[in-house]
């Protein structure tokens, strides 16, 4: 993230060690300034490619693999609008196991049934009359009229149990599919982010494009 913090503008902030001297300020990075990709950039699908996070890969690992620079992990994060790595990035294996045990209380509970999902049902023509993976009750039954057979059909046992473990695994798998900005377009993003980070002349406390003043405490 070092590369990202270099791009943050500064603010003149009250020196907290010298509160009796309100005029004494230090330059500090404005960590409240947050960058995100513009919608017109995000909408350009040719700028991006899909990426699947493998194992315990972190954002810096992905940046090193894709861009040859681990400090560009912030590009990986803002490309996917990730603000909280703990919640929005796949958990490392050791933390994931601890999370499951804490959430469900025991290894037995982890493999208890979380809910039931429908099976895919087709008629004699091969047309789907009931889709799969809908949340249903246990022992869900499907009834439909099959015109080919000229009869009403009733199919029982149309549900499958989904365990707590499977439910949690699906959530983790969804987080593993991200978008990566192609290296060719990095400069476009750098220029855009630098423009977003800059202060505008006439804004409150403006000193320069990279520095503004704040009120003393």
Q: Structural class, from helix and strand content? A: alpha+beta
Number of strands: 13
How far from one another are the termini? 29 Å
Shape: elongated
Strand order of the largest sheet: 2-1-13-12
Looking at the chains present, what oligomeric state does this protein adopt?
A: single chain
Query: What are the secondary-structure elements, in order, as H or E?
Result: HEEHEHHHHHEEEEEEEHEHEE
Average of the residue pLDDT scores? 85
Number of domains: 2
Portion of residues within helices: 25-40%
**Amount of beta strand:** 15-25%
Radius of gyration: 26 Å
Uncertain residue segments: none
Major sheet details: 4 strands, mixed
Number of helices: 9
Topology:
Elements: H1 2-7, E1 10-14, E2 25-29, H2 39-42, E3 48-52, H3 59-67, H4 73-79, H5 85-88, H6 93-104, H7 107-110, E4 113-118, E5 121-122, E6 128-130, E7 135-136, E8 142-146, E9 151-155, E10 159-163, H8 164-176, E11 177-181, H9 186-197, E12 206-208, E13 211-213
Parallel strand pairs: 1-13
Antiparallel strand pairs: 1-2, 3-11, 4-7, 4-10, 5-6, 8-9, 12-13
Helix pairs in contact: 3-4
List keywords for this structure.
4-stranded mixed sheet; alpha+beta; 2 domains; 217 residues; 13 strands; elongated; single chain
Structural commentary:
The protein is of the alpha+beta class. The protein has 2 domains: 2-83 and 176-213, no CATH class; 120-157, no CATH class. 33% of the residues lie in helices and 25% in strands. The protein has 9 helices and 13 strands. The strands form 5 sheets. It has a 4-stranded mixed beta sheet, with no helix packed on it. The chain has a 3-stranded antiparallel beta sheet with strand order 7-4-10. β12 and β13 (211-213) form a beta hairpin. α3 (59-67) packs across α4. The two termini are 29 Å apart.
């Amino acid at each position: 993230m070092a590369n990202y913090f270099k791009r943050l503008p500064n603010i003149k902030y009250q020196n907290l060690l010298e509160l009796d001297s309100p005029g004494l300020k230090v330059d500090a990075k404005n960590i409240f300034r947050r960058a995100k990709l513009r919608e017109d950039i995000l909408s350009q699908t040719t700028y991006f490619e899909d990426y699947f996070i493998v194992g315990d890969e972190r954002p810096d690992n992905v940046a090193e693999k894709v861009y040859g620079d681990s400090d560009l992990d912030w590009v990986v994060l803002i490309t996917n609008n990730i603000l909280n790595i703990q919640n929005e990035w796949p958990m490392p294996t050791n933390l994931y196991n601890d999370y499951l045990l804490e959430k469900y209380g025991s290894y037995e509970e982890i493999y208890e049934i979380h809910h039931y999902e429908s099976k895919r049902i087709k008629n004699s023509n091969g047309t789907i009359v009931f889709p799969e993976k809908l949340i249903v009750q246990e022992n869900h039954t499907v009834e439909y009229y099959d015109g080919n057979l000229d009869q009403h059909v009733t199919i029982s046992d149309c549900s499958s149990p989904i365990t707590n473990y499977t439910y949690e695994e699906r959530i983790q798998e969804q987080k593993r599919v991200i978008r990566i900005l192609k290296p060719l377009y990095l400069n476009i993003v750098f220029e855009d982010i630098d423009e977003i980070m800059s202060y505008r002349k006439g804004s409150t406390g403006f000193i320069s494009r990279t520095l503004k003043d704040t009120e003393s405490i």
